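User: quick one, fold this
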Amino acid sequence: MKLEAILKEEFGYDTFRPGQKELIQMVLDGKKAMGIMPTGGGKSICYQLPATIMSGLTLVVSPLISLMKDQVDSLNEDGIPATFLNSTVEWHDREERMRYIESGAVKLLFVAPEKIVDEEFYSWLSSLDISLIAIDEAHVLSSWGHDFRSSYLEMIQPLKNLSADCAWLALTATATEEVQADLARILDVPDENIIKTGFDRDNLALKIERGVDKIDYVLNYVKSHPDESGIIYAGRREDVDKIYNFLKENDVSVGRYHAGLSDSERHNQQEDFLFDRINVIVATNAFGMGINKTNVRYVLHFTVPGTIENYYQEVGRAGRDGLPAEAVLLYTPADLRLHQFFINKSLGDDQYKLSLRKKLFEMSRYAETQTCLMKFILDYFGETNTQVCGRCSNCLDDREVVDVTADAQKALSCVVRMGQNFGKKMITRVLVGKDDVANDWHHFEELSTFGIFEDWTLKETSRFIEFLAANGYLTGSGGKYPTLKLSEKGVDVLKGKINVARRQDLPKYKPENVTKSRTIVADGSFDMDLFEKLRALRTKWARKQALPPFMIFSDKTLKDMCVKNPVTEADFLNVSGVGKVKLEQYGESFLNEIKEYQASEV
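Assistant:
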């Protein structure tokens, strides 16, 4: 049977996404391969589909224990036998699952890396017929990765010893070129077996809001997007609690998630969000690593994440169904200072701290850049020749652009005259001409650039320095006391070879300007009334099956039903996301709902 036919029959999709078929073919050929795809790019199909074909067991190693149940439930819902073994499984249940796996009835087994280095478990695992080893979230193996866990490297050699003949597949969504090279070395993946599909998410609109009243903005945004699922990320537990209580007082259906809550409360809040019993959840960045909810329409960052990798992974939770989604970063420089404080207090060695500071500097550049936001991220991950997205807040910014070359030359000249050995705070105070940096042993008051911005405020000057750094005219040292130096681009500005342009200051924020800028209806034309009826039917089935609604059908599949209006089983199979098992389980019910709606419209 052709791979496309299996894709349709087992998973309900007519065509492969970029990179999927190539990786699947490598796996079926018994090779070692690596896939680097964006969050929501369809990585799991790359091992799930081969598992339905291969004679033996597919072993999926993942650090995301809380995600395993969702993955297994979703596979079983599609009629593909799967199970998981991790620390959450009681011993009697574990024994039963192991006997079931030994019988050959299970096609996919999900385990945590810790299980691989458990001698007793590994001995049992060695007795199984394993056709494929898939390592999900593979970036945790690389010391260059944002979630590096050195203990996970211990599992690599035992895994290599399991079987000389089985295929290998490593998958990750956030890998810089350094991480990619490190993973290829660790896992012995040849360059020709690495498939990179690009990190662009063309359904995701990135947005940055600067200088806003954050709590006010969040309330107005959530209120203007009713009945849509959203995640609000905050850096500290107290911020999560503050936002949660504020939204709840203003009649928002909201939950919260952070390490200060009991295990049962965290579990219940996550379940409420997955099952659409609440629309919004406020969380620290630990949330979301264990969910695969497809219909999240927006992600708001109340505080700035510490790395581009973490940020893009978190915004990637929006729009996994391929429908329009939005990610808004509420930026204030104070957030960066908080990250700097925690880096300094970190127990890591100097090299580790330096790596974090460099990543934080890149995050600060992103927050201040006036270039296309998606292009900035793609450039960070090493993608070249990328085009502007045309949908982010910078691409849509229609403020007047003014020439600031003269001011840039003054600021850059000051950096040079100060020996390129100082950070933003000191440079700012010298430019403004503050008394506290004059007449000390540095003798900054003798510089021709001292006080050259005397008519500017410290805040205005600091923002201008941040603008120069964000747009590549200055680079950061990344040390404990970060210093700013001129880049080649900055040198060209001083020499008059290139000009510097900057948009005018942002207009004052007004709460009423938070509009419903994006909605599910924006992606094509279909009957919204029918969509709501099908969504209600999906909820009914979800409660009956004790599954999250998106596991029955995604919003994208419901939308396709509204567009195609199927009336026969053959028509229903032509809907994206409907395979043979979903047809058998839900076809009659949904077809009847569509027919009744059509009859009522006559």
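User: anything notable?
Assistant: The domain at 524-601 is CATH 1.10.150.80 (DNA polymerase; domain 1).
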